[in-house]
Amino acid sequence: MKIRENYIAVGVDGSEQALKATLWAADEAFRRGATIKLIHAYTDPVSLYAGAMVAPQVNLEEAHEWAEAVLTKAESDIHHRYPNMTVSRQIRHAHPVTALLEVAEHALLTVVGASGINRLEGFLLGSVAARVAGHAPGPVVVIPGKTEME
User: Fold this and answer.
1) DSSP string spanning 13-67?
2) Coil/strand/helix, residue 88
3) How many CB atoms lie within 10 A of CB 79?
4) Least crowded by CB within 10 Å, which of 11, 61, 82, 100?
5) Is there a contact between 21 and 112 (Cβ–Cβ < 8 Å)?
6) Angle (CA) 37 40 43, round 5°
7) Whole-prediction pTM value?
8) How many Cα atoms occupy the beta-carbon half-sphere of 79 within 13 Å?
């Protein structure tokens, strides 16, 4: 049996759905007296087609800076609502599903948005939210994106 620690893990990718997930997780953490662990993961882009197409060069420093900015915004949004909430941040150079599943290992709860920035990857491989929900070792809350009613 896995020992759960007193934190809620949140996948953050800079999307509107991730912001909704972050704020939902903050509300839940406040109710439970838990902390928040924000996770942003990124991978190098890969070519979708074989042949002459070459994947663009990735500047890992820029990717890391962008990840810091995304997490800073998410943390700021949490602290705007809950100034004293403890928030930790983690940037991983890994596939988002892998990173989230590792952090979910001991989380009270893992929260993800239903739709992120990388819609093409979601179409080809299945969404990060669906894969995390299907494979996480503990409870997962998926915050839906916009519906036709919105």
Assistant:
1) -SSHHHHHHHHHHHHHHHHHT-EEEEEEE------SSSSS--PPP--HHHHHHHH
2) strand
3) 13
4) 61
5) yes
6) 150
7) 0.82
8) 11
Question: Which two structure tokens, joined as six digits, stand for 131?
Answer: 């894969």
The two three-digit tokens of residue 139, written as one number: 């409870």
At residue 124, what is the residue type?
Answer: L
The yes-or-no verdict on residue 60 having pLDDT over 50 is: yes
Query: Using one digit for the tens of pLDDT, what is the confidence trace for 6-38?
Result: 999 999 999 888 999 999 999 999 999 999 999
What is the Cα–Cα distance from 35 to 105, expressed in whole angstroms?
Answer: 15
Question: In which residue are the tokens 């993961």 written?
Answer: 41
- In this structure, the strands spanning 140-143 and 109-113 are parallel
Q: Is 2 exposed, middle or buried (0-12, 13-18, 19+ CB in 10 A)?
A: exposed
Helix (H, G, I), strand (E, B) or coil at 8: strand
Cβ atoms < 10 Å from Cβ of 21: 27
Distance CA 133, CA 23 (A): 19
Query: Mind listing the pLDDT tens digit for each residue in 62-85?
Result: 888 999 999 999 999 999 999 999
